[in-house]
Structures are given as C-alpha cells and as structure tokens.
Amino acid sequence: METLKAICSRTSCRAFTDQPVETEKLEKVVAAGSLAAIGRRQFENVFLTVIRDRALLDELEAATREMRGNPEMKAFYGAPVLVSVAIKGDDFLGKENCACVVENMLIAATDLGLGNIYLHSPCALFEKQPELFKKLGAPEGFVPGAFMALGYAAKETEVRELACRLPARWI
Amino acid sequence: METLKAICSRTSCRAFTDQPVETEKLEKVVAAGSLAAIGRRQFENVFLTVIRDRALLDELEAATREMRGNPEMKAFYGAPVLVSVAIKGDDFLGKENCACVVENMLIAATDLGLGNIYLHSPCALFEKQPELFKKLGAPEGFVPGAFMALGYAAKETEVRELACRLPARWI
Questions:
Q1: Are strands B115-119 and B81-88 parallel, antiparallel or unpaired?
Q2: Least Cα separation, residue B87 to chain A (angstroms)
C-alpha cells in the first residue's frame, strides 16, 4: 500500500476476529517498529515482547478485568496478539522512543491489512503486578512503556482524508 | 512509495541543501503527522508550528549556538523547515502523543523524498528562553514536546533491511 494511504487508513481497532496473525506478517510489523526513531540510537534501552500465547493472554485479560472490577470487559478488545514495548526506566527519552516504535508498528500493520490499536492502559496492570511484568522478559530496570493489540479487524475501516486535524500555525 | 519501503528508508538526515520545500509537500507531511495516534483523541492538547521564516530560523540557530557555546554549530543541520510539536503541560500522554506525530511526519517526509530528523534537543532552548517559545504560538500552558527538521538531503540515503534491530522476545 502507498505510505500516505496507510497513514490515512490507520485507525484504532476495537473489535478483532479470532483469526490468527501470520508469523511472517507479525515479523514485518515488529521489524518496522524496530526501525523507528530511537533517541541517541540506544536500541538496548527498548525491549519488545510479542505475546501470542493464549494462556498468557487469558491471564492478562483476567487480571485486567479484575483490576477494573468489570467481569464483562474484553481486555485488548479480543486481539490475538499483544506487543509490549518496555523501556529502560532511567532513559529520559523512553516514553518518546516507545511511542515511535508503536506508531511505526501501527502504520505497518495497517499496510498489511491488520487491525491495530495503541494501548497505554496495560501499563497500569503491569505496574501494579510486577510478577506479570516479569513474564514479558524485559531486563531488570525496565518499565512498561506502551502496547499494541493486533489482529484482523471485525469491521472494515475507512480511509481518512489527508488533512490536518490538529491546531497548527505556519510562520 | 510502498509503506514498508518508506519505513526502511527513514533515517536521520544531518546535512540539508538550501532547496526550499514545496508547500504542497509540507502540507502533506503535517497532515500525516496530525493523523497519528493521539491519546483519548485529545487533539486540542497538541499544537503544531511550521517554521519556514528565515529570520526566525536564524534567530533560533543563533540562540542555539550561544546556548551550546559553539559558534560553528549548524543548529537544525541547516534545514530550511523546522516543525515544532508542543503539548499541553498537564497531559500525561503528551510525550507519547508528540512522538507519534513526529514519527508519522518522518515516514511521510521520507515517502515524499524529503530528508528529515527527529530532534529533542531544541526543547532545552525553548525551556530556557520562554520568550522564544512564545513566538511559536502555542496556547498558554503548553510546553515544547518534540521537533522535526525537514528539507532536501545533501546525500542519498540507503534503504535498510526490514529486520528487527531491537531486543525482542516472542511468547
């Protein structure tokens, strides 16, 4: 897909089908994320975890429902893949780095026909339950940064117009 | 350009020519940035300033050289355009939002054949000199978030391989 079309088509998907994501596509999405702008090229300060294991996803979903006090909640919108971007806790550019990685993954996923959504909310779960965060395998001293849920969208999404939707000033 | 090729071609440009950027291309880059993932769709918490005015760029470059104590320094690598992404100071997702906007702009700029670089360093200048930050026109309560320098690259850049360069674990 053309780059600007992918950017215009990216939208937060909040309903996924059960269809699994092909490993080849997932590898491309993760690789695209890793090619994002990383401050001072400190690649070792970012750690990715790709979670497809159904048992772990079920555990994370159940823990989220319990934390939110909502037994009906569909955590991660039922996506079959969750990607965690953890960051070194003392990197002052950590938040920016993880956001760039996720944004690149969202665009690449859109390009590959996959539904996707940027999630910040799982940070609260992992911060409250360090034993769950440990399961993601990030090195000591890392903290949750951002997440992406990924899968096939239950509904088709529209292509937005390439027009500025933010307040802007030209000088 | 195909999306994944643009992602693989994005690289930090540190030498720009004097060639001005066409307004039409610049508008597309800025629009692409505005279509990035913004937390809770609070678009009013992000403010863009597109700076092409040579007098203001000269003033910012001179102030940067003075702050760094380096009279030879080519601030913003001589780029003819600087885009500022300011964020509402009390938005806890502000840093992530501005990074997503800049990453989208970098990818779109690459797609359109423009050299580009993500800059965090101008934040220090604007934080130390609030009267300069005021010139960017962001509303009261906003702070510097991130910047992109943009123009035509002095050298051609290579297309990287679509392979993961970050530490990653698959579960």
A1: unpaired
A2: 11
Please tell me the predicted confidence (pLDDT) of residue A156: 87
Return d(Cα A131, Cα A140) in angstroms, integer.
12
B12 DSSP assignment: B
What are A123-153's pLDDT values in tens digits? Answer: 889 988 999 999 999 999 999 999 999 999 9
Instruction: Check if B163 contacts A (Cβ < 8 Å).
Output: yes
Query: Which of A3, A5, A119 has the highest number of chain B CBs within 10 A, making it the mutation to test binding with B?
Result: A3
Residue owning tokens 């940027």? A118
What ipTM does this complex have?
Answer: 0.93
Give the span between the Cα atoms of A22 and A150, in whole angstroms: 11
Cβ atoms A134, A124 nearer than 8 A: no
d(Cα B17, Cα B113) in Å, to the nearest integer? 13
Q: Which two tokens stand for residue B26?
A: 């610049």
What predicted TM-score, i.e. pTM, was given to this entire model? 0.94
**Which residue in A8, A9, A50, A103 has the most chain B C-beta atoms within 10 A of its own C-beta, making it the best mutation to test that interface?**
A103
- Domains in chain B and their CATH numbers? 3-151 (3.40.109.10)
Are A162 and B28 a contacting pair at CB < 8 A? yes
Cross-chain residue pair B43–A104, CB shorter than 8 Å:
no
